[in-house]
Amino acid sequence: GRLEAVTQQMGYHPQYLDSFLKTQHYLLHMDGPLPFDCRHYIAIMAAARHQCRYLVNLHVLQFLRAGGDPQWLRGLDFIPPKLRNLNEINKILAHRPWLITKDHIEKLLKISEWSWSLAELVHAVVLLAHCHALASFVFGCGCEQDEGPGGRGSLKPLSPGNQCFCEATAGNSCSQELLRINRKRSLDSCMELDSLRERMQRIHVETEGREETRLLQQEREEGEGQGAEVGARDGRHRPDPSAGLSPLADTDGEVTGATNLACYMQDPDFGYQDFARRDEDQTQVFRVQDYSWEDHGFSLVNRLYSDIGHLLDEKFRMVDGLQSSAMAKRQGCEPSVFKRGIWNYIHCMFGIRYDDYDYAEVNQLLERVLKVYIKTVTCYPEKTNSEMFDRFWKQFKHSEKVHVNLLILEARMQAELLYALQAITQYMI
């Protein structure tokens, strides 16, 4: 249930990693408007939009540990309507955030049995944006292995595969004490997994047992005279094991995630489309001068979900402050200029513009092959394959590639938040 592969890559920039982990922990495990099981299910929904099995399987395990109902893991048809109603803005934020309007917000907040509160919705929106952006990082850095025909697969060793976390962050070898702690954590994790396997096997057996009892009761009620008809009906209604709970214990006793992530989303063909300036009646360019994170988004999100604004702001500032002098020098510019070019290019793909920026600089600063990589990881990360990370921009060091992926993660997350928070502000006004 831990993000070992992600933290190994982020470990090249330990200050940022610390900020990221604090935010992730606060979103998922600290006091907040949403129940803990719902938080992980929302994360599952968000990761499924990009077919990110790494994150889906992680949150499936954490969802169960939080006491979540295993039936929900059968898909959106088995969850409460309140959660299912979140599907529309999940889809829009993941692929075309410029389409979100105050009408989407009003629909979720309207007075009904399944309405959301403003605080709950802000928590959900931050979670969705966090997981969409993290999926980009997972694919961009090769943390997700291509799935085989069986729909399973495991995480592959990452470069540098023989380094432990503290070597990547501190640049020296581990002490015996740190090694002992890491071994203990691994043992604890294995024990948790064994316990979870047993629980899932028990749930699976109990579910089948309840179904068998129901069918036997149905046969008795039908009466002996209709035995043949009941037998035929029993054959039709007996549950298909492959359609049961997800995850299920397989023949080796290993807990596996959902084999088909489509059960966690609707309208799977809805994806990113290039943003273009529209007519007056259609979507307009989002101007940061009119609505920005610093002047508008931060105060709104912090008011409705206490302290999360400070954590997000720290994370945005942390990625902006990361050292990239060597990376920028290779491109023949100052570090701040290079980073701003990447950030503004990502925001531009989502229709967000800065009036004080000359966008001709983007083509001068970023080589075409780098722009293709950034666009793929940002807009349709599921199309990224592990070779792309090694093949593109060979002149960059591994840590510099991770730095670019962190810029993608944070720029994308801020873009989604700007659109969602602006829609919430318009609804409130």
What oligomerization state is this entry in? single chain
Measure the end-to-end span.
Answer: 41 Å
Question: How many distinct helices?
Answer: 19
Helix content: 55-70%
Strand count: 2
User: Given the helix and strand composition, which structural class is it?
Assistant: mainly alpha
Low-confidence stretches: 146-193, 224-258
Largest sheet: 2 strands, parallel
Task: Give a structural overview.
With 429 residues, this protein is an all-alpha fold. The chain is 60% helix and 1% strand. It has helices at residues 4-10, 14-29, 36-48, 53-65, 81-84, 87-95, 102-109, 118-140, 165-170, 176-222, 227-237, 293-304, 308-321, 325-330, 335-349, 360-365, 368-379, 386-391, 398-428; strands at 286-287, 352-353. Helix 7 packs across helix 19 and helix 13 (308-321) packs antiparallel against helix 19 (398-428). It comes from Dromas ardeola. It catalyses: a hydroperoxide + L-cysteinyl-[protein] = S-hydroxy-L-cysteinyl-[protein] + an alcohol. Belongs to the sestrin family. Residues 207-251 are annotated as: Disordered.
Describe the protein's topology.
Layout: H1 4-10, H2 14-29, H3 36-48, H4 53-65, H5 81-84, H6 87-95, H7 102-109, H8 118-140, H9 165-170, H10 176-222, H11 227-237, E1 286-287, H12 293-304, H13 308-321, H14 325-330, H15 335-349, E2 352-353, H16 360-365, H17 368-379, H18 386-391, H19 398-428
Parallel strand pairs: 1-2
Summary of the model, kept short:
With 429 residues, the chain is mainly α. Helix content is 60%, strand content 1%. It has helices spanning 4-10, 14-29, 36-48, 53-65, 81-84, 87-95, 102-109, 118-140, 165-170, 176-222, 227-237, 293-304, 308-321, 325-330, 335-349, 360-365, 368-379, 386-391, 398-428; strands at 286-287, 352-353.
